[in-house]
Amino acid sequence: MSLFKDAGHLFRFAFLFVVAFFVFLVVRHFVVPKTFGEYGHYRAAAIGEIAAHPIHFAGHETCETCHADILDVKKAGKHAGVNCEACHGPLANHANDPSIAPPKLDTAVLCIRCHAVSAAKPKGFPQIDPAQHSGGVPCETCHQPHSPAIQTGGAK
Amino acid sequence: MNVDRRHFLIMLPAAAIAWKYVLAGTPEESPNYKMSDHWWSMLIDIPKCIGCGNCVRACALENDVPEGHFRTWVERYHVTDWDMVNPEVISPDGGKEGFPAAQVDDNGKYFFVPKLCNHCADSPCTQVCPVGATFISPDGVVLIDQTYCLGCAYCVQACPYGCRYIHPEKKVADKCTLCYHRITKGLTTACCEACPTGARQLADLKDPNDPIHAFLRTHNVQVLKPQMATGAKVFYNELDGSVR
After folding, report:
1. Contact A86/A111 with Cβ under 8 angstroms?
2. A107 shares contact with chain B (CB less than 8 Å)
3. Which residue of B has its CA nearest to A85?
4. Which of B240, B41, B116, B43 is nearest to A120 (CA)?
5. Of A79, A82, A118, the CB nearest to B101
6. Which of A1, A79, B13, B219 has its CA 20 to 30 A from that of A20?
7. How large is the ipTM?
8. pLDDT tens per residue across all 156 residues of chain A
9. Which domain holds residue A70?
10. How far apart, in whole angstroms, are the C-alpha atoms of residue B25 and residue B21?
């Protein structure tokens, strides 16, 4: 076997490479997350973790299961397309435990957010100048937020 | 701790069950949700936006967005007739508390442009991530694995829409998830839920019954920066040419 004569140092070197390769495989097995590469170059389990984040806005369908009476009022009025939590804020905790009372709302802030006059808003959107429109009288004196058109003979 | 053989054997099944959950690694997933059945997108109807900032506030509350950073925000454009290519754009605090009243301008126009992650199908941000911490999910949502992210911010630079930021406390990339935790449970996103005028609509391009298909066929719809070929999936109805 003249071919392998005096090649012992090369075998030792090759053996080191083989050992290093297996060490790499073992380390890789423990370091790379289980689901990495399941769908692509990322950890597939992350999708489930993100999907498990807690919800804060319950969604109007949830509200409507209990508050069907308000839904009937709202459906007939101009605010039919406005979801509950657009004004009432996130109420998933109230939906999960009805004993948690939703915070009281301030119409002076809420109505103005959408309906304060501005040339930037779409022309057809109902807008008022808060100072001239009511002179400080609270909005709900005339307008019921769930169906805001003035009911008795007034302008819409 | 002294554990005799008897107690050790009693504890074995409990340990086996616990270990199963450790290996699974996935907290509760929605049982009836199949990723391959969806391809999420969003429709923004610019003529309907009133700049109230409801979406920005709802997003911050739903997703615990840190102060001064935005997963969605609203810009107000003021375009004058004599300088269409240099619009005046404002977004005070992301439009969170609305906008100052605009005076009537006979030589120009105003409009609002809500912005968010475009959940691009060929996203530049996912391509530059060196560790595979950000990716496009099988249902078309660009997500971040925050336990894997190094915070190198390559993706923040790569996003042509400026939709990413480094979370000031977690020190990792953060952005809109299209409320992935909501849409996988059959709810709409927080911004769509809170939008009072329906200017934002979550849409599923793989659902043949979704009204998005009819809308896209019959309206003048564009995406932002189409020349970047990002495959953006946030569609803007009546988008003005001055918007960037």
Report:
1. no
2. no
3. B194
4. B240
5. A118
6. A1
7. 0.86
8. 577 778 888 999 999 999 999 999 999 999 999 999 999 999 999 999 999 999 999 999 999 999 999 999 999 999 999 999 999 999 999 999 999 999 999 888 899 999 999 999 999 999 999 889 988 888 988 999 999 988 765 444
9. 60-141
10. 6
